[in-house]
Amino acid sequence: GRDAAFHRLLRRAARALGRPGTRYGDRVRQCHDAPALSQPTSAVISDADKYFFDTNGVLILRQVLSKQMIAAMNAAIDTRMVDDTIERRGKLRLTAKGGPLSGDGTTGRKDIAGFLGWPRGEREAFRDVLTHPAIVPYLHELLGPGYRLDHNPLCIAQDPGAEGFEFHGGSTLDNGRWNWPLQYEYSHGQMRCSLLAVGVPLTKVNEGEGGFCIIRGSHKSNFAAPAAVKKYEIGTEHGYAPALDVGDVVLFSEATTHGTLAWKGDKQRRTLIYRFSPATNAYGRGYSPEWPENYIEDMTPAQRSTMAPPYHPRLDRDSVAENGVDVIKPAPREDFKVQFDEKIFKSKYF
Q1: How far is CA 30 from CA 19, 281, 288, in A?
Q2: pTM across the whole model
Q3: Which pLDDT does position 16 carry in this prediction?
């Protein structure tokens, strides 16, 4: 009866193993690959883009988001900026008192989050970043197909005189050990970031005003950043604080040491930070046990695919197509494998 059927299933699986040139044999030998999710080489990403990201650990995409999209984001944020509890004061401050990053010593950074779940009519522009066609090819290149949103996205704002943020991230921990959760690696013709930040400036930043700053090339450093470097007390000539305009997007590996300079501009600075990881990676745990329902409701299938928890693409993981609209579905697992897993694990997946 049932036992005999199970043993027949087991024999089928065993025969498939190690038999190259057969339908199942080739698939089994490549079982940890995801050929159904393989993306064609993108025509969007130039050789120069690849060179500069691999060299610097940061890349700026100029004028890829519309002014209308940024205006919609700012309008939604305006109504929430009046809450004075969002400002980091006292023990929540991010810099040492009297240091070069501390600003006027009083004004703190302001943080706002949750915008993926704001009411209809406000959240859509924020969600569009997840699958924007100008960004998706770079996420595929740096994270692989099936990339996922890792952190709850954040809006940070600096009023005139506001403090910055001491430098952090980096490839090496303070004790000299490898900072593998943030690692960047180039191997077998591929770049991979364990955690990739996507910055979306919502206001213009002129050169010399402060804001985002990064130590280019530090994603490959084998030494820990000294405390004086993190506090921006020495080596300031190595800090790169680019001029940015609305419509720009900043991509950087979290393994590239970065921070925020005190704000010297005469108007509030705003930027959004999204962090993405490869399909199998997780640093944050906002997805667990699941994202809030208002984050997910009414998302497009492509957007929804970026909110999945970490698991391998071959286990029925959808992937965003390069156009940011379509969804690529993997080839279904063979029925006999699914049946076997259900028999052994009492679940469709192991």
Answers
A1: 12, 20, 30
A2: 0.89
A3: 45
